[in-house]
Amino acid sequence: MGVSTRLKQEAADNGMFQLDQIRAPPRVVTVPVGPGENGKALYIHGQDTRQAAEQLHNLYGYSVLVSDVISLDRKIPDQRDTLCLQEDYPDDLPQVSVVMIFYNEALSVVLRSVHSVMNQSPPHLIREILLVDDFSDKPDLAFPLESHISTNTKLRDKVKILRNTKREGLIRSRLKGVQQAQGPAVVFLDSHIECTPGWLEPLLARIRDNNSTVACPVIDQIDTKTFAYEQPNYLAGGFSWDLTFIWINVNKEEMARRKSAIDPLRCPVMAGGLFAIYKDYFQHIGAYDPAMEIYGGENVEMSFRVWQCGGRIETVLCSHVGHIERTAKPYLSFRSDDTKDIDIEVNKVRAAEVWMDQYKRYLYGRKPYLKNISYGDISERQALRKRLGCKSFQWYLENVYPDRLEQTVESGFYRAWGELRNVQTGLCLDHIDGQGVGLWDCHGHGGPQL
Length: 450
Known about the structure:
Keywords: Disulfide bond, Glycoprotein, Glycosyltransferase, Golgi apparatus, Lectin, Manganese, Membrane, Signal-anchor, Transferase, Transmembrane, Transmembrane helix. Its cofactor is Mn(2+). Pathway: Protein modification; protein glycosylation. The chain is of the alpha/beta class and 450 residues long. It folds into three domains: 67 residues, no CATH class; 249 residues, Spore Coat Polysaccharide Biosynthesis Protein SpsA, Chain A, CATH 3.90.550.10; 33 residues, no CATH class. Helix content is 30%, strand content 18%. The strands form four sheets. It has a five-stranded mixed β-sheet, with helices on both faces. Strands 5, 6, 7, 10 and 12 form a five-stranded mixed β-sheet that branches. Helix 5 links the parallel strand 2 and strand 3. Helix 10 packs parallel to helix 11. The longest helix is centred in the N-terminal third of the chain and has 14 residues.
């Protein structure tokens, strides 16, 4: 049976395209042969099948149909530099608790993430895998998930499922996972990843050498439509002045500081989904801010905190983990109760008010409406900063992220910062789509009207 015919048969058998109903559990494929093997792309043929696959892609943010056909144990080629193969790692690396949060993921994607951790990790280093379900309502994430784990001899003694009784969001769900973690080290992973050979030991070696290190793997890309495994374009993260995470080029000074092509890179801001850290250190520096909502901005806040309070964040080049950057984000359709919508922008305001000192004005310059947002009590986070003796944000910019410091009024990069308003007409200088720079009604929301 050809791949196209097989895909159609899978669709017919499972009724997976009846999107107005709950999709039936897929037939998981565990033999590491066939479509998608070695990280190759899998293309869908046939107009009807492509249309159905697109509908599921829009729903999940990736091609569920393709995922369901690819083996849970598919092999990914070794992504490491050949120099990494010559590295020797200590025998006393710490055991880890792997914490994964999921909410309405496709079953095959969650299981492939779990399988890849087990398949590509030395068994003695995995203390447990904690799957925290943030109140999913997909039935295949209930009994079918538990059945697969309980009947798999490799998984049943290692994998534990923790169920939230209401939606908590990624941040508080991760805190729940850490509270249950038994290993001395914690590795946070998203639930839509694939680990590659040798991914774990380099991360653990870095935190063993310095227990105030946060070690991040190179985050490779898994295509959302074909599940092709691809190399990344960037190795380090930063932030824009609206506190959005961005990928950045590694500057010349950082490249020159390293003695080897595989030495870790200092990273100003981590992407946040995938990293290793000692549990004690995670708790010592304040874990996550529990008053932050859902997810978004917690990685930027934690990066500021780690660097300013004496730690460091590294991209470990000998560790590679593939990640699906979903085109749809289930967490963003979150409601805390029946009456109140959550504004995740509060996370950025809390980060700015606690950590950015005078530079918080750049956030408010970008998004003036955030000046009026209610961000709750930050006294405990301010006390944490004082207790840990953390450095200023000026120090962070000068020593960790000088490229961002260059783009400030203080450095002379800008003559001024704010909107340019004609007081007589009430119009502001703006970027108008298709027309370039022009005049538009002043809206007070920042953006191109800075």
